[in-house]
Design a protein that fits this description.
The protein is mainly alpha-helical. 75% of the residues lie in helices and 0% in strands. Helix 11 runs antiparallel to helix 12. The protein is elongated, with a radius of gyration of 52 Å.
């Protein structure tokens, strides 16, 4: 009993020492983990976790991670403290920027831990990770949240879980299942309004446009909605309004979107289309100017050239319209040629730049980059080699998975790029034809109306100088906050034929002559096509010859290169040998220092062992004295107990004898009573028998006397 009390006292002293230490730290510096935004838990844990928890509190997260992993390596996942160690390790990984490692440990806790408090903290950690732009959506959403039943959760986690479960059900086409999650939402937070947007989009898919507009309008007008959620709702609502022909209202919503620069291009292009449909062509063209900004040059937006062509055609700028289509061909012509010739677009530099700039590929590449950066960062941390070997397969496996996903995304985006470019190529050809036809029709109309024979204008347009409509010459300087604020000044050439006929008017005298000219042009184009085909054949022939010559030169270059590489290898081997010798010397020196350090550590360890042995002997001496005192007390207690037991036994024996005497007296009295009762019974039976015999005797006598009487009274007998 005294040993147990002593152990409890030691534990209390240890905990009080820790408390005093943390109070001193708080008074001097504030709580260590409060210096960063992320919370570092210091929970009620088993004693073996205290050293790692202290390292964590002092922000030595790599050393703390090593301690938590060493604790877990010696235990099963159902033992006390295992889930807490996982949680603290994940928190340290988050502080060190190892988001993937934190995700793996948080997810493992949510899957298997039976400690509800730890599970909720892990789920909170995953919630924070999902607010990052790049995170492991497959592990967190698809494989964990969507597959697991969570039961009752706190409000802040309840909406988080049911939002992603509803999102996956909507994606997979199960609106009824999604509605089961929608009704479980509590309160009106970010996830509540995101679910509302999902409901609106599903209503649009089912052609319930009125419900879609109503829900999105409610989200946009709700003051409590966060800016990112409001932006998503505005973009969706603006697209619905555009499709319903409400271009002015759609443009107003687009202008209110606070989009970051990397997503601003989509908003600006949709604004330009809204202004074009509103017939505000100059503003629409001004918005397209933003796509000449350096930050937009890598984006795949072929639609801008078609919209430019349509705007130029509205003002009869036929040369500029053909120039816009020429810009489309100049930018994407090489890719289209490669597609037609069935080339591998991965080997096409221009196609490769387009594909790597597409959002799906960008996201996967960003994820791969993040995994690589985290793997590199792991090599710079103070971790044990065993822990590194344990972590390395996690990152290797996840990297391999993401690389396979990138291959699938790449193939899908290649096919989509082919279809998209062919679609825009077809539209560009159609616009080129319509531009030419529009020009010819304009020539014919103006010739027969007499406008081509006189009434020429000087082409000058007066510009206001000091008003809100003042125009300035654009010098190619872009500002991020002005990308969607340009207005493009463009003159209307429809009444100035000398502008779009290059100043030379050659009218045809009748419609037949115009048709003849068209035929001549077609014949010339056919001849030109034939000549181009012949030239192409000659070019192919020359290319084959050039390829053979190039192969010959490449073989010679390869031979020369091999000789150079051989010489370089020899030199490299020499340098490596010297480096190896230097390395061996350094390692030898390092080993000497390590041996010296080990010797000092052994001496310190020996001294420590000696001190511990002395302490153990002193403790054993104290324990021996305590044991003797305890033994004497126990001996006296045993004697007193034996005496009391003997007295109790005597008392029990006397009581037993007295009980036996009383029982014998009772038995004797009972026997005497029974004997008297038997005698009394026998006497009564004898008296009854005697009385019965007398009665029988008297009866016989009476019967006999009657028979004698009858005999005397009958003389005939």
């Amino acid at each position: 009993m005294k040993e147990t009390n002593q152990i409890h006292i030691q534990r209390i002293v240890f905990l009080l020492t820790l408390l005093v230490l943390f109070l001193c730290l708080e008074e001097a510096y504030g709580w260590p983990w409060s210096k960063k935004q992320a919370e570092v838990p210091f929970p009620d844990a088993v004693e073996e976790l205290y050293p790692a928890l202290l390292e964590m509190a002092e922000q030595r997260y790599d050393t703390a991670m090593d301690g938590f992993w060493a604790f877990m390596a010696e235990r099963e996942n159902h033992e006390d403290g295992y889930a807490m160690a996982q949680l603290c390790l994940a928190a340290c990984a988050t502080e060190l920027g190892l988001k993937q490692l934190a995700t793996e440990y948080y997810a493992d806790i949510v899957r298997s831990s039976m400690d509800r408090a730890v599970t909720l903290q892990a789920l909170e950690g995953l919630k924070k990770i999902t607010h990052e732009e790049i995170y492991d959506e497959r592990t967190i959403v698809e494989e964990l949240i969507y597959e697991k039943e969570f039961g009752t959760l706190p409000a802040e986690l309840n909406n988080f879980v049911h939002y992603y479960q509803a999102l996956m059900d909507f994606r997979n086409g199960y609106p009824r299942w999604a509605s089961n999650h929608v009704v479980k939402l509590e309160g009106q937070d970010e996830y509540f309004y995101r679910v509302r947007i999902l409901e609106a989009l599903w209503a649009l898919k089912e052609d319930r446009v009125g419900d879609c507009r109503r829900i999105l309008t409610e989200v946009v007008e709700e003051p409590a909605v966060d800016t990112p959620v409001r932006n998503d709702a505005k973009k969706a609502l603006a697209r619905v309004l555009y499709e319903q022909g409400e271009f002015m209202e759609a443009y107003r919503l687009y202008r209110e979107i606070e989009a970051p620069e990397h997503t601003l291009a989509d908003v600006i292009l949709e604004e330009a289309w809204a202004k074009f449909r509103e017939k505000d062509y100059k503003k629409s063209m001004g918005l397209l100017v933003a796509f000449t900004a350096p930050s937009f040059q890598r984006l795949f937006k072929p639609e801008q050239y078609l919209l430019q062509t349509l705007i130029y055609m509205q003002y009869c700028h036929y040369g500029a319209a053909r120039g816009a289509l020429g810009s489309f061909q100049e930018r994407y012509g090489a890719v289209l040629t490669g597609i037609r010739q069935r080339e591998n677009l991965t080997d096409n530099p221009q196609a490769n730049r387009i594909l790597t700039g597409l959002p799906p590929v960008e996201r996967v590449d960003a994820y791969l980059t993040e995994l690589t950066d985290e793997s590199t960062a792991l090599g710079e941390l103070q971790l044990s080699e065993a822990f590194r070997e344990y972590i390395r397969p996690i990152y290797e496996l996840k990297t391999a998975q993401v690389e396979r996903r990138r291959e699938k995304v790449w193939k899908r985006e290649v096919e989509r790029l082919k279809r998209t470019l062919f679609d825009y190529q077809e539209q560009a050809n159609l616009l080129a034809y319509e531009s030419g036809m529009h020009q010819y029709k304009k020539v014919k109309e103006m010739y027969y109306s007499g406008a081509l024979e006189g009434g020429e204008t000087d082409g000058k347009v007066g510009l206001p100088k000091f008003s809100k409509h003042t125009y300035f010459a654009f010098e190619g300087e872009f500002w991020s906050d002005e990308l969607d604020d340009y207005t493009f000044f463009i003159e209307d050439y429809c009444d100035m034929p000398e502008k779009w006929l290059a100043g030379v008017v050659v009218p045809e005298r009748d419609l037949e002559a115009m048709k003849e000219r068209v035929k001549e042009q077609e014949a010339a184009e056919k001849e030109k096509a034939r000549q181009e085909a012949t030239a192409e054949k000659e070019k192919v022939k020359q290319q084959k010859a050039a390829i053979k010559e190039q192969e010959k030169q490449e073989k010679a270059a390869e031979k020369q290169k091999a000789e150079k590489e051989k010489a370089v290898r020899k030199e490299l081997e020499r340098k490596e040998k010297a480096a190896a010798e230097e390395k061996a010397r350094l390692e030898k020196e390092k080993a000497r220092k390590e041996e010296e350090r080990a010797r000092q550590e052994r001496a310190a360890e020996k001294e420590k062992v000696r001190q511990e042995e002395a302490e153990r002997k002193e403790q054993a001496k104290r324990e021996k004295a305590l044991g003797r005192a305890k033994a004497e007390e126990e001996k006296a207690a045993r004697k007193e107990k034996a005496r009391k037991e003997r007295e109790l036994a005597k008392q029990k024996e006397a009581a037993k004898k007295e009980q036996a005497e009383r029982q014998r007296a009772l038995d004797k009295a009972k026997e005497e009573q029974e004997e008297a009762a038997r005698k009394e019974q026998i006497s009564r039976e004898e008296a009854a028998a005697e009385e019965k015999a007398q009665q029988e005797k008297a009866a016989k006598k009476e019967k006999k006397s009657k028979r004698g009487k009858f005999a005397r009274s009958d003389p005939s007998e």
